[in-house]
TrEMBL record, chain A:
Residue ranges of domain ABC transporter in the record: 6-225
Entry annotated with the keyword Chloroplast: no
UniProt similarity note: Belongs to the ABC transporter superfamily.
Keywords: ATP-binding, Cell membrane, Membrane, Nucleotide-binding, Translocase, Transport
Protein name (record): Sulfonate ABC transporter ATP-binding protein
C-alpha cells in the first residue's frame, strides 16, 4: 500500500466546547496516495465539518491529523472572484512570476475544456462552466489531496453526468488522492475506490468498491452495493425512511 | 368568485349584441387596413423621434414661461424670462466672469473632496479591516455623523474664519461621511465564502485584502463617492453664502443684491449642471472599474 497522504487518528470536533456532543467523534481515517474516496452521510452527519478541517479552514484541536502540504478544494458553489477573469481566478495564489502562473492556468483550463472562456468574467459563465473553472483552479495546484465538496450538487442532471466523467478522467490522469463529499450514492459508486458513510460523527461504513472501471450502473454488483449503502444511510429502495419505519 | 374574462361576455352590449360580435362585424365591414392605420394618424409625435420626445414637455414649458414673461403675466423682477437668462449667461461667459467663478467653486470642491478622501479612506480601511480599528474609529465617527454637519458652520467660522478654509472644510465634512460609511460597509459586506476560498488557495492576509476585500468593497465605495459628490455640492452652496468674494455662490448672492434674477437662475443652472457632470464622472469610473458586473456587461 502506498504511503498515506491523509491520516486522522482519534480526531474529534465539538462546536460548543468540551462536554458538548461531538460533531466528529474520535474518527480514524487513512487515505493512501492516489485513492478516490467518497464520503456519504445524511445532512448534519459531520461531512462538511470534516472537509473544512481537511481544507485547513478549521484548526485541529482534538486528536491528530497528518495532512499533505498540497491540498485543493472544489466547493459546492464555484466561489470564483467575480472581478477577475477566469484565468486569473485559476491562477489565484499561485507562487512565482505571473507569466508562468498564466501558462499553468491556461493549461489547467484546457484540461477542463474551458480555454475559450479564459478571458471571460465569471458572472457570464454557466453553472457547469463555473464549476469546471473551479476544478481547474484546484487542479492547477497539482494537489496530493483533492477535496470535492458536493461539487455537482447545484448542476442540472446532464451537466452533472459530464462533470462526473470529467472528474473521473482528470483523476485517472493526475492521480491525486480524492475525498468526494456527496449525497449521491450512485455518484459515489461510479467514481470512488472506497465509499465511507459518516453517521453521528463516526464511520458507519467503509466499503471497497470492487466493480471494475470504467463503471456502468448496469455492472454486476453495482446494485447490491447501492442498496447496501442506502440501507446504511437509512433509506430503503423506494426512498422511504427506513429508520422511521423501524421505530 | 368568477374570473373577469368569463363574466365579461355575459354583459349585454347596447342593441343586444355582445361586444365581441360588434367588433368582429366592424372589422369585416371596414377592413383591416384603416383600423390598423388609425392610431398612427392621431399620433402627435412620430415614434422615430425617440428620445427627443422626452424633451417636448420641458421645451413647451420654457416657451410658455417666455410667453408669460413677454405678456407681463410674470413679473420679470421676480423671475427673469428664459431669453434674459440666456443673455445673462452669454454675457457671463463672454466676459470670463462665469469661468472665473466656476474655477473658484470647482477648486473648493476638489480640495474638499481630496481632504475627505484623505481622511475617510484610511479610516474606512482601518475600521473595516481590523476589529481594533473598528472599536477605535467607528463609534466616534457614527456619533459625529449623527450631527448635521451644516450645524457646525458657526463653530467652523470661529475656528477657521470666514475665508476659504471654512468653505473647504464644509465640503470635506459633507463628503467624508458617505465615503467612510460605504467603504466600511463594503469591506464588512464582502462574501465570507470568497474569503474562505482565498484562504484555501493560499492567499496571505495581504493577498486576501488586495485580491478579495478591496475589489469586493469597491462597488459600495463608488456608490459612496457618488453620494459624497452630491453632499459636496450641497456644502458648497451653503459655504459660498458665507461672506464669499468669488465662486458661483458669490455670483448668486451678489446678483440678489441687485435683483438680477437672470444671473441667480444662471447660477442655479450651473449648480445643476455641475451635479449632473459629477454624477456622470462617477458613472464613467464605475463602468471602467466594475466592468465585471452583469449590469455593466448588459449595457455593452
Amino acid at each position: 500500500m502506498p504511503d498515506p497522504v491523509l491520516h486522522l487518528s482519534r480526531f474529534s470536533r465539538r462546536f460548543h466546547g468540551p462536554g458538548s456532543p461531538p460533531v466528529l467523534d474520535a474518527l480514524d481515517l487513512i487515505v493512501p496516495a492516489g485513492e478516490f474516496v467518497a464520503l456519504l452521510g445524511r445532512s448534519g452527519s459531520g461531512k462538511t465539518t470534516l472537509l473544512r478541517t481537511l481544507a485547513g479552514l478549521d484548526p485541529v484541536t482534538d486528536g491528530k491529523a497528518v495532512l499533505p502540504e498540497r491540498r485543493a478544494v472544489v466547493f459546492q458553489e464555484p466561489r470564483l472572484l467575480p472581478w477577475k477573469p477566469v484565468w486569473r481566478n485559476v491562477a489565484l495564489g499561485l507562487p512565482g512570476p505571473s507569466a508562468a502562473a498564466r501558462d499553468r492556468a491556461l493549461a489547467a483550463l484546457a484540461e477542463v475544456e474551458l480555454s475559450h472562456r479564459a478571458e471571460a468574467w465569471p458572472l457570464t459563465l454557466s453553472g457547469g462552466e463555473a464549476q469546471r473553472a473551479g476544478l481547474a483552479r484546484a487542479l492547477v495546484r497539482e494537489p496530493d489531496l483533492l477535496l470535492l465538496d458536493e461539487p455537482f450538487a447545484s448542476l442540472d442532471a446532464l451537466t452533472r453526468l459530464r462533470m462526473q466523467s470529467l472528474v473521473g478522467e482528470l483523476w485517472q490522469a493526475h492521480r491525486p488522492a480524492v475525498l468526494l463529499v456527496t449525497h449521491d450514492v450512485e455518484e459515489a459508486l461510479l467514481l470512488a475506490d472506497r465509499v465511507l458513510v459518516l453517521a453521528e460523527g463516526r464511520l458507519a461504513e467503509d466499503l471497497a468498491v470492487g466493480v471494475p472501471r470504467p463503471r456502468r450502473r448496469a455492472a454486476p454488483g453495482f446494485d447490491a452495493l447501492r442498496l447496501r449503502l442506502l440501507a446504511t444511510l437509512g433509506v430503503d429502495e423506494d426512498g422511504h425512511d427506513a429508520t422511521a419505519r423501524a421505530a | 368568485m368568477a374570473a373577469p374574462p368569463l363574466s365579461h361576455p355575459s354583459i349585454p352590449a347596447p342593441g343586444g349584441r355582445s361586444p365581441w360580435s360588434f367588433r368582429m362585424s366592424g372589422q369585416s365591414l371596414a377592413g383591416a387596413a384603416p383600423l390598423g392605420d388609425a392610431p398612427s394618424r392621431f399620433r402627435l409625435f412620430p415614434r422615430r423621434l425617440g428620445a427627443a420626445r422626452r424633451f417636448v414637455a420641458p421645451v413647451v414649458l420654457v416657451l410658455l414661461w417666455q410667453l408669460a414673461a413677454q405678456a407681463g403675466l410674470v413679473s420679470t423682477r421676480l423671475l427673469a424670462s428664459p431669453a434674459a437668462i440666456a443673455t445673462a449667461a452669454w454675457q457671463l461667459i463672454a466676459s470670463g466672469e462665469l469661468a472665473y467663478h466656476l474655477a473658484v467653486s470647482l477648486r473648493r470642491v476638489a480640495i474638499g473632496l481630496a481632504i475627505a478622501l484623505g481622511f475617510a479612506v484610511p479610516l474606512g480601511l482601518l475600521a473595516g479591516l481590523s476589529r481594533l480599528g473598528e472599536d477605535l474609529v467607528d463609534a466616534t465617527l457614527q456619533m459625529l455623523r449623527a450631527l448635521p454637519f451644516l450645524a457646525l458652520v458657526p463653530l467652523l467660522i470661529l475656528w477657521l474664519g470666514i475665508g476659504e478654509a471654512t468653505k473647504i472644510a464644509l465640503v470635506a465634512l459633507g463628503a467624508a461621511f458617505p465615503i467612510y460609511l460605504t467603504l466600511f460597509g463594503g469591506i464588512r459586506g464582502v462574501d465570507p465564502k470568497l474569503l474562505e476560498a482565498g484562504r484555501v488557495f493560499g492567499l496571505s492576509r495581504a493577498g486576501l485584502i488586495r485580491h478579495i476585500v478591496l475589489p469586493g468593497a469597491l462597488p459600495q465605495a463608488l456608490v459612496g463617492l457618488r453620494y459624497a459628490l452630491g453632499t459636496a455640492w450641497l456644502s458648497l452652496v451653503v459655504g459660498e453664502q458665507i461672506n464669499a468674494t468669488a465662486g458661483i455662490g458669490y455670483l448668486v448672492m451678489d446678483a440678489r443684491e441687485f435683483l438680477r434674477t437672470d444671473i441667480i437662475l444662471v447660477g442655479l443652472l450651473v449648480y445643476a449642471l455641475l451635479g449632473l457632470g459629477a454624477d456622470q464622472l462617477v458613472r464613467f469610473i464605475e463602468k471602467a472599474a466594475l466592468a465585471w458586473r452583469p449590469s455593466v456587461l448588459g449595457e455593452r
